[in-house]
Amino acid sequence: MSDAVLARNATIAEALAEAARKLDAAGVPDARRDARVLMAEAVGGDIASVLGRPEAILDDAARSGFDAMIAQRAARRPVSRILGRREFWSLPFSVDASTLDPRPDSETLVEAVLEHVPDRGAGLRLLDLGTGSGCLLLALLRELPNAWGVGVDRNGEAARTAAGNARALGLSKRAAFVAGDWGAALGGGFDVVVCNPPYIADAEMAALSPEVALYDPDSALRAGSDGLDAYRALVPQLPDLVKPGGLAAIEVGYNQAGLVSDLLRSYGLRVKSPVCDLAGVVRCVRATVEAA
């Protein structure tokens, strides 16, 4: 079917088939799924409603909006960047050019922290270093109703985006977001510190998918010749940030867990068992500060 015919009288099914063909040709993974998500956005419904009425004719506004979104996705712009939002821990987060696109793998950090917390009703103090969209801190605050937290990001615009997410989720009274260089300007006494730092080595940047390389902030990805620069900057601060008995939970890249664990030990932290993501890859290194 030609684009001209599609533009005049395409049904949802026809438009989806043509969109999936375009996305496949552009090398987009899961082309059919992405087309359905974008169609749902175009018609103002959900995927179930899209699949439930394949014979419906798209009106002009829906056709135009859908075509524009498919063109962006064919240019390898991620769906989350097109929509301006991403679900994380079953919560909606706004994302923009200043923030890393939250990954499902990072939910491993939330699980690792919750596993460590014996009393979810305790009034814990949380710190999220390199907060980006605020997804880690805000997911934890949703699960820990009496906790309070601070998110720090070197990019002031990211800190503002995270604050907006806190307001949208009804968590702004328990969360503060500031621009800063890791935890350098903060006092200590945090029960939990979480961090998803940059960990891509310079030589590995070229191998990233276009969705990551072109649209995630370079500063949230690149971490020097061996991918460990951010860890070297933040780990020395942890003994002063984490209270005795408290926990640091840090995301790591592939094959980095051992090196990061050694770095933590060199600063006197006690490394606990690592936590794997759903693919069985070690995603989170945990360490505690020994009580005096």
For this entry, give a set of tags:
alpha/beta, single chain, 13 helices, 17% strand, S-adenosyl-L-methionine, Helicase, Ruva Protein, domain 3, elongated, 292 residues, PrmC_N, 2 domains, transferase, 8-stranded mixed sheet, methyltransferase
Describe the structure.
S-adenosyl-L-methionine binds at residues 130-134, 153, 182, 196. This is Release factor glutamine methyltransferase. Belongs to the protein N5-glutamine methyltransferase family. PrmC subfamily. One of its GO terms (biological process) is methylation. The radius of gyration is 21 Å and the shape is elongated. It has helices at residues 3-9, 12-25, 31-43, 47-52, 60-74, 79-83, 107-116, 135-143, 156-168, 210-213, 229-234, 238-241, 257-266; strands spanning 85-88, 91-94, 125-129, 148-153, 175-179, 190-195, 242-251, 270-271, 275-276, 282-288. The chain folds into two domains: 3-75, Orthogonal Bundle (Helicase, Ruva Protein, domain 3); 89-289, Rossmann fold. The chain has 13 helices and ten strands. 40% of the residues lie in helices and 17% in strands. Strands 3, 4, 5, 6, 7, 8, 9 and 10 form an eight-stranded mixed sheet that branches. Strands 1-2 form a two-stranded antiparallel ribbon. It is of the alpha/beta class.
